Amino acid sequence: MLRFKNCQIKDLTYKSLSFAITSTPVPSPDPVKSLFSPTPVTFVDVKTDLGRTRCYWVREELKNNKAPLVLLHGWVAGTGCFYKNVAEMASDRAILMIDLPGFAQSERPQFPEEPEDEWIKSLKDTIAVQVPDDRTFWIGGHSFGGYLAARLAIEENFTAEGLILLDAWGIKEPEMTFEERVEKRLNWWQKILLKSYQRLGLKFGGMDIIRALPSSIGPKLIKAARKDLLATYGDEFLEYIFEINSAKPASGELAFSSLNAGFGYAKYPMGPRMLKNHKKIPKNIHFLYGGKSWLESSVGYQIIKELEENDPNFKCTVTVVDKASHHLQCTHPDQVNSVVNEILKSAEER
């Protein structure tokens, strides 16, 4: 079973902001080092208003050569979800990956009822510390990480060269009310369960079942019950997912539920906000979707069409990776790595 070690944190003042930060090679028990092997990785802990945020660097020595690629993972995941990408994706530049506050190896703070602004401020502060003042960067994210990456891209003075959205959650505006979706998609016992949760004022974190399993048998049960996942992701990755989602409290999951409008939709969908703020966002915007994902690629095409109508200087693409799932960076890493590399190369040549 993989176990985490706490690192020692030193207080430093950097870039006129006070943070607690430490940078050391990842110790051998760290699961991300093992998952990324043989690609070397180092970690940095940055303290922001949401506590300690764990960041990982691959090829950090190149961060002053070309614009680094910043990657944000999705819901109930962590930096380890990019384990099939770090060697070949953006291999000519540094990659900074951030464990979102409330998830993985970052601290699990108490979030306010509306957590989006706090998440964004924390991520902005973290990137400001990690990326040199005179460098721009690319930002990308998978699923919920894509939502946050898009939200960062519409911030004032956020100097991203481009935005890469990997099957991003929360982009499309819902076409029905929550109640209409409940009526259409849930069967009778699911409706009863939902009403019970609502009546009791409960929030479902999403990984409560995993958290209830003893660590001695939890991973074994998951591997036995989901041999399909074991075949796709491997033994070590499933242990990593179990370990990071066994931690308490489930503050990130519960904060996410405050942004979730249900059935894959966000309370504040990013598509309309990207269009409204088209003058702020970078001109390079690229959507990648899994061909078998539950998310609809049509929204990416629609956003790009409207962006290019507003400003012909936008350089946007939509790529649908055939037969890939929502977790396309894991199920079809070669294709995803190739697309991302082509995006970066094309931007450099313009």
Name the descriptors.
single chain; 350 residues; alpha/beta; Rossmann fold; 2 domains; 10-stranded mixed beta sheet; two-stranded antiparallel ribbon; 14 helices; 38% helix; disordered N terminus; carboxylic ester hydrolase activity; lysophosphatidic acid acyltransferase activity; AB_hydrolase_1; AB_hydrolase_fold; AB hydrolase-1 domain-containing protein
How would you describe what is shown here?
It comes from Oikopleura dioica. The protein is an alpha/beta fold and 350 residues long. It has two domains: 253 residues, 3-Layer(aba) Sandwich (Rossmann fold); 71 residues, no CATH class. It is 38% helix and 20% strand. The chain contains 14 helices and twelve strands. The strands form two sheets. A ten-stranded mixed beta sheet has the order 1-2-3-4-6-5-7-8-11-12, sandwiched between helices. The chain is globular.
Round the Cα radius of gyration to an integer and report it.
20 Å
> Please, how many helices?
14
CATH H-level superfamily of the largest domain: Alpha/Beta hydrolase fold, catalytic domain
Distance between the ends: 48 Å
As residue ranges, the low-confidence spans are 1-28
Assign the CATH architecture of the largest domain. 3-Layer(aba) Sandwich
Strand arrangement within the widest β-sheet reads: 1-2-3-4-6-5-7-8-11-12
Helix content: 25-40%
Could you give the order of the helices and strands? EEHEEEEHEHEHHHHHHHEEHEHEHH
Reading off the top of the CATH hierarchy, the class of the largest domain is best stated as Alpha Beta
- As for the number of domains, it is 2
- Pairing-aware structural class of the strands and helices? alpha/beta
CATH topology of the largest domain: Rossmann fold
Mean pLDDT: 84
